[in-house]
Amino acid sequence: MKLNIFLLLVIAYSISVYSQEKDSITYVFPDNVEMKLYERIKEIPSFDSYNFEFYLQSIEKDTFRLSFTYYSGLIDNFWAKNTNRFILINDKKYPLILDYDSMFSTKNSKEVGEFGKRDDGFVLRSLFIYKGYNIKFTKTGRYISENWGLYRRIEEAE
């Protein structure tokens, strides 16, 4: 009896893990960007004991900013917990959030207002602020700049 329950749990877990992997998107950045990120992660004392999340912003034509933050404890960022996008660094995947997530998504999909009237203050938008590492690079992987500090998504004036 115990063996049957154990086998059932193993099969259920395998299906769950397979489903999450099947439904996810893995981003693989140019080698020198991935190597730079890995170097910066390893600089953090006891980095294996932290959770990381990454934020990707398109800032100019073919130019991007990739930021990461880290913290101990469970992932509490709504977007990081619910994303199906991951960044691969070395052999580990980390949650990836895109700039469009904060521009066009909402935490509460039940409170979005009526069709044609959603911009009347019904949709709650979010602003992401990260305290961590940022790297700016081109789509071909050419390094532009990097820094540690505060970063927030800045909306451009229309």
How would you describe what is shown here?
The chain contains four helices and seven strands, in the order H-E-H-E-E-H-E-E-H-E-E. The protein has 158 residues and is of the alpha/beta class. It has one domain. The protein has a seven-stranded mixed beta sheet. Strand 6 and strand 7 form a beta hairpin. The protein is globular and about 50 Å long.
List the helices and strands and how they pair.
Blueprint: H1 2-22, E1 25-27, H2 31-42, E2 51-60, E3 63-71, H3 78-82, E4 85-89, E5 92-98, H4 99-104, E6 129-138, E7 143-152
Parallel strand pairs: 1-4, 2-5
Antiparallel strand pairs: 2-3, 3-6, 4-5, 6-7
Please indicate the percent range of residues in DSSP E strands (runs of 2 or more). 25-35%
Succession of helices and strands: HEHEEHEEHEE
- Radius of gyration (CA) equals 19 Å
Whole-number mean pLDDT: 77
How are strands sequenced across the largest beta sheet? 1-4-5-2-3-6-7
Multimeric organization: single chain
Structural class: alpha/beta
What percent of the residues sit in helical stretches (DSSP H or I)?
25-40%
Number of strands: 7
**Number of helix segments?**
4
Distance between the termini: 65 Å
Low-confidence segments: 16-20, 154-158
Shape: globular
Q: Could you say how many structural domains there are in total?
A: 1
Largest sheet: 7 strands, mixed
